[in-house]
Amino acid sequence: MSSRPTPLIRGLLSGSSWVFLAEALAVPTGLITAGILSRKLGTSDYGLLTLSGTIVAWVEWSVASVLARASIKFVSETTDWRPVGTALVRWHLILGIAAAIVVGLAAVPLETILDEPGLTRLIQLMAVGIPIFSVAQAHRNILAGKGEFNGRAASVAGRWLVRLGLILLFVGAGLSTSGAAMAVIGATLAELLICRYYISPAFIGPCAPMQKLWAFAVPLFVAGLSLRVFEKLDLLALKAFGGTSEQAGWYGAAQNLAMLPSLISLSFGPVFLSMLGRELSQGNVEGARGLARDTLRAAVLTMPLPAIIAGSAAEITRLIFGPAFAPAATTLSLLIFSSSAMMLMTVTSCVLTAVGRADLVLKLTLPLVPLAMLGHYLAVPTLGPTGAAIVTTVGASLAVLAQFVVVQLYWGILPSPATFMRAVIVAALAGTLTVLLPAPGALLLLKLPAAFFFALLALVLFGEFSAGERAAARSLFPIGRIPFRH
Questions:
Q1: What number is the average pLDDT over the span 250-271?
Q2: How far apart are CA 402 and CA 182, in angstroms?
Q3: At residue 15, does pLDDT exceed 70?
Q4: In 3D, which of 242, 228, 225, 256 has the Cα closest to residue 376?
Q5: Helix 149-172 / helix 129-146 crossing angle, nearest 10 deg
Q6: pLDDT score at 471
Q7: Using 50, 70 and 90 to split pLDDT, how confident is the model at 67?
């Protein structure tokens, strides 16, 4: 069991919790937004908005990910963040403008290829927001690197809430798809302004040299791009190798339901990487090793989460999507383990990034896509959606196992066998109970929290958590005044 000092544990839990709660606003605001737009716009316009939004969002996140982890690492390690911050916002602005121009020019052939009249106008309008999004992400990364997680959380929460409000205003005023696009741009601008309330890097002025940062950014970007392709390859392979549109619909529904661990990774990863970088920059190698060891252990202890969701997969799909999506349950019960493995991979890749081994992250990630393509080619024609989900889950599990081995060899911080055993036992018990105790309809909303509480209580009774960790967790509940600016 860990004996880490409470301040580090509490800092990691607190920072992650605030960012997670902010990111989680995407769920209720997204559902409300989808309901409003689908009714106001109608099937055709809503489909056009979704298609253009998907294209632009993929470009935005691809551009933002180029420097994301490298930015957090270098800001966390420097004593004067301003020259680094100036370089980051400048490069994000340049990349964002370049991407906007490319997307704007590509809109015309995309409309022709996809045979969707009106797509050009909508894509070009939404492309205006790409530079704003890119610069906002630069600010969020700087905030994470400096450890100002309240600011990062506030900017994320502000974006989701402003987006909902502007969609209600613009679409309600009859501006249709253009109004929805302008609402998204306005929300991104609001996020940037909130970030700049907390921190204001200069766009013009002395900036740090970027050679060393680019040396880290390029392999991490390629590794991240490989992971994104790997995560979406199964659905494409299902269609390419004979799957029906109906099967693709079931599979897409299961993918959406399996996103919870990914949401945790999105909020947790930047906080963890920032804290590791600061510990190492201060020469506290043992402190960083201890923090990494405890974090890996905590990630392993989340194993009951996918087991509970897998055991309740049939009830979850039926409650959310209705009886027509019942076949998605089998896919969900597999993909939730894949998503959990990807969350573990976030932890291990953050460790390797913090210690300066971005090259290892790349080497362990690159084989995923070609191996998955081969697996889908062999499995999907015979097993259909189940085969695609098996390939994705096995691939993610093998990848995270390889990263665990490398982290152990490089830094010697693998969690103890006792921790692995307790996590497996509790996951098996919790998953079995969810299968044996069905909860139809709305009763599922009581069953899932009860199952999670049972798993947590079982880990406590097995003696997994130290007194310091229990005290750190309890300290999160009496939430005091949150500082608005440092």
A1: 76
A2: 44
A3: no
A4: 242
A5: 160
A6: 67
A7: confident
C-alpha 284/C-alpha 85 separation (Å) is: 24
Classify each residue of 19-46 as buried b or exposed e, where b means 16 or more C-beta atoms within 10 Å of its C-beta.
Answer: bbebbbbbeebeeebeebbeebbeeebb
Own/partner contacts of 469-476, CB < 8 Å, gap of 24 or more, are 469/2, 469/4, 469/9, 469/294, 471/6, 472/6, 472/9, 472/10, 472/13, 473/13, 475/6, 475/10, 476/10, 476/13, 476/14, 476/17
Contact 439, 446 (CB under 8 A): yes
> Tokens representing 486?
């440092």
Q: How far apart are CA 81 and CA 277, in angstroms?
A: 13
Residue 368's SS3 state is helix
DSSP string, 397-416: HHHHHHHHHHHHHHH--PPP
How many C-alpha atoms does 115 have within 13 Å on its Cβ side?
A: 0
CA–CA dist 161, 165 (Å, integer): 6
Indicate the Cα dihedral angle 127, 22, 62, 229, nearest 10°: -130
CA-based radius of gyration for the chain: 22
Give me the percent of the chain exceeding a pLDDT of 90: 31
pLDDT digits (tens, 9 = 90+) for 401-441: 999 999 888 888 888 888 999 999 999 999 999 999 888 87
Q: Where are the alpha helices (DSSP H) in 412-474?
A: 417-436, 444-461, 467-474
Residue 239: how many CA atoms within 13 Å on its side-chain side? Answer: 11
d(CA 70, CA 216): 6
Q: Which two tokens stand for residue 482?
A: 């949150």
At CB < 8 A and 24+ separation, what contacts does 449-457 make? 451/308, 451/311, 451/312, 452/304, 452/305, 452/308, 454/429, 454/430, 455/304, 455/305, 455/308, 455/426, 455/427, 455/429, 455/430
Separation of CA 220 from chain center: 15
201: left (phi over 0), alpha (psi -120 to 50) or beta: beta
Q: How many CB atoms lie within 10 A of CB 246?
A: 11
pLDDT at 203: 85
* Other residues' Cβ atoms within 10 Å of the Cβ of residue 90: 19
* Residues whose CB is less than 8 angstroms from the CB of residue 346 and which lie 6 or more positions away in sequence, other chains included: 265, 268, 269
Q: Are 38 and 177 in contact (CB under 8 A)?
A: no
pLDDT of residue 469: 65
| Claim: this prediction has a pTM higher than 0.90 | no
State the residue for tokens 């005044």: 481
Domain ranges of the chain: 21-209, 210-478
